Amino acid sequence: MYSKKVMEEFSNPANVGVVEDADGVGEVGSTIDGDIINISIKVKDNILEDVKFKTFGCVVAISTSSAVVKLAKGKTVDEAMALTNEDVISYLDGLPEGKDRCSGFALDALKMAINDYIHKNK
Amino acid sequence: MYSKKVMEEFSNPANVGVVEDADGVGEVGSTIDGDIINISIKVKDNILEDVKFKTFGCVVAISTSSAVVKLAKGKTVDEAMALTNEDVISYLDGLPEGKDRCSGFALDALKMAINDYIHKNK
Amino acid sequence: MDHSATTPVDSLVVDAMLPFFSEIFGNASSLHSFGTEAAEALSLARKQVADAIGALPEEIIFTSGGTESDNLAIRGVVPFNEGKKHIITSVIEHPAVLNTCSFLESLGHEVTYVPVDVDGIIDVKVLEESIRKNTAIISVMHANNEVGTIQPIEEISGIAKEHNIYFHTDAVQSVGKIPVNVDDLGVDMLSISSHKIHGPKGVGALYVRNGTNISPIVFGGNHEKGMRSGTENVSGIVGFGKAMELAAERLSEDSVHMTRMRDSLISRVFDTISDVRLNGHPSKRLPNNVNMSFKYAEGESMLMLLDMQGVAVSTGSACSSKSLKASHVLSALRIEDEFIHGSLRMSLGRENTMDDIDHMVDALQETITKLRAMSPLADR
Amino acid sequence: MDHSATTPVDSLVVDAMLPFFSEIFGNASSLHSFGTEAAEALSLARKQVADAIGALPEEIIFTSGGTESDNLAIRGVVPFNEGKKHIITSVIEHPAVLNTCSFLESLGHEVTYVPVDVDGIIDVKVLEESIRKNTAIISVMHANNEVGTIQPIEEISGIAKEHNIYFHTDAVQSVGKIPVNVDDLGVDMLSISSHKIHGPKGVGALYVRNGTNISPIVFGGNHEKGMRSGTENVSGIVGFGKAMELAAERLSEDSVHMTRMRDSLISRVFDTISDVRLNGHPSKRLPNNVNMSFKYAEGESMLMLLDMQGVAVSTGSACSSKSLKASHVLSALRIEDEFIHGSLRMSLGRENTMDDIDHMVDALQETITKLRAMSPLADR
Ligand SMILES: Cc1ncc(COP(=O)(O)O)c(C=O)c1O
Ligand SMILES: Cc1ncc(COP(=O)(O)O)c(C=O)c1O
């Protein structure tokens, strides 16, 4: 039911962890929901030099986390903020119907982290 | 579902026909019901010397006709009148449940034939 | 020659089913790969069934057979038609439809049973006149299982559409014998049974046109999009799908073959046996159905003597354990008393040959001769 | 290790079924000898099923599976209890029971859902107190499909009898794993599903004690003494009969074998993995059921990683397409948030070996380690 790409990102996720001395951190979800996504970023010269995630959750939560992190890494802050859910889904070659709810969480966490960075650097 | 004996009597019925110069004739059923049993008898010295049947009807109608005729043949008039439905059914090693309705017709036809004989000879 | 009762499972169908017993035995609802394989097999079968009748896969609900499909169609529509408590059907439907209707009558619904003419064709005028403001559904079978008469479904579905009433047809006997296309027929729902088309028993489908709202009649784990709960009979459904594919592929060949055998059987019986009549419509009939009545010979007795000669047939005249009455179909066709007790249905299948027809005619002659010799009626 | 979802069909069962596809393919309702052979095969299967549960053959109604059996039991009783519109069941029943109950609620019936304790045992006192004058039926499952907890059926059936209320149990998961005897259990009705005991999918039975009046839920040609219409799935029923016979024969051996594997699996998981709990009753549980929750690891993710290692399991914590919620069973057991999203059901079968247990434990360790390394919760 999941695309090959989803299963790849899920079973071999890159960039797991927490960036040291993070410039921004975002976290979405709760144990009650059963999904927690934590994304931390390191920004240098307006570029997301390092991005990492830690995720407790289902296949979609983990694979979208991994995808979002890969998509964001190396982008400028503005470029990363412009990422859409569709970008994530198309990067993963699609998600099964009904899984859209979880699919936005990772992106939310990334944007939270970027906002955290922007806020701190105002 | 039918006993071997039923199928035997049904597929190789003996004594089919009408006794010539019958001393008594009995007929039960109608085309509306879909079962007609005709039994004719020849009586000599109070003994049913010859008994024959003609039957239009189902497996039970034909096999009970054949059985009744065999049971009656050679018996005295009183003995034949004393034949019961159970005698017929046990001669046939039983009948399937729900087939009891048809099972009495042949015996009815025999008794009608005997009554016809008695009536004629009063 | 009792293919209308059931058919042997095609060997290609058995082959398709076998892996799903012990290799690919997963539950199609399971998330792991064993389950996924089963789910994929169901998808393929759904497409095979849909393609064979010109439908979309999502319009197919798998059921446990034709009977359940008929129940689901009629009872499924009722709750969505609050206040619409009237149903129109015909007097010659299969018990799956008729007994569903009587059940609904016991719940307070009203049912009109439209009569048929002596050939078994429904009286379309009476049908149209019996439409009421509160008619929820019209259900008329495509082809009759006893006498093989084919109904003017396009005409009836047109009337239903005009009045905005759901239309269901029981196509259990017609699929695989004549073209069955849901758009050509103009139906909203259509019942199919696997074991009538060389598939396994205990599987069937209800076609439900997109946009037709029905509610389920079996409740549970919401399989089949909630329309039919219960762990799917994967091997059975796979076999059914294959059987539908084969039926569609072979339809034109099969129907020519069966029509030829049918017509030969009918004409040879007429040529060699006296006091006989054909029941059902002379031309608007299934290519595989021969239903004839013989005077002075009773149905069950003929059936049993033929069985001894290796020929399987059925009769609507059975002095069966359940009732002495002739079938509701033969009665509805107003067949005379002398003929009604002596009916035989000889239903042909793909694998029958002209040799079987020869054997059938011979066996029939012997049987009729024997029974007529025994009958007190024959010489009157 | 997902035998509670479904089981492979035993090769002896497949062998028993095969002749009924293309050799003995008759319709059991046909009068001729092809039909008779099919009817005899059904009789044998009926006896096999009856014998396995200490019932009489005439008390067995064949259905299309456990779901339909549950529907038939509960909905079948209702029409015979005019005015009795109250049903008692438990909160942890299978959806086949729960959704049948909600359907009846939508028709105006009242349902009491009795709670369970943290081990999943029904609160018998609450059950007894909830009995009303108009209670028509009590339905409590024999063993739960998710957590394997076995209910005190004898006690509940005694209460039902005292109050003259019909008692039904869903024994779909218990048959073949623990002794199931209708007299010992004291039940009026009992549901069985073939595919849970190495029989084919799409077949099941409802045991109905003689003297228990129920009405059908599928209408048609009055098969199964009118209690379940539809051409019988002969091959499926034959396979089911054989599977029941084998299940009864092998019960004591199977249950010892499964219990040993179960206990070994549980203790080894506790020994090697931290932050884990056993869901369901520690001792009153099916010999084949292990249901454990792992902190900091989510159900679906565990399932998928295990699947990649060739191990099939299920989870009541699925972030499934249908809902994000944990299963109603885990919720009813009041399992803490940290554990409820990380449950796995590992259900053993006859053909599993201690090697499978080794592999399961290894795969589980690897899976948990991997997921915990990813979890933001693990190091807080
Ligand atoms: C016209 C018709 N409808 C419905 C059915 C019932 O289908 P099934 O045998 O799959 O229950 C049959 C066959 O028995 C049939 O001939
Ligand atoms: C306890 C229980 N009841 C009923 C069912 C439904 O049976 P079936 O899968 O045959 O529809 C199942 C299995 O899914 C079950 O585990």
UniProtKB/TrEMBL annotation, chains A, B:
Which Gene Ontology terms cover its molecular function? Answer: iron ion binding; iron-sulfur cluster binding
Which residue spans traverse the membrane?
none
A Gene Ontology annotation in the biological process aspect, one of them, is: iron-sulfur cluster assembly
- At the top level of its lineage, which domain of life is listed? Archaea
Task: Identify the Gene3D superfamilies for this entry.
Answer: 3.90.1010.10
Q: Where is the NIF system FeS cluster assembly NifU N-terminal domain?
A: 1-122
What the entry lists under InterPro entries is as follows: NIF_FeS_clus_asmbl_NifU_N
Q: Which PANTHER family match?
A: IRON-SULFUR CLUSTER ASSEMBLY ENZYME NIFU HOMOLOG
Name used for this protein in its record: Iron-sulfur cluster assembly scaffold protein
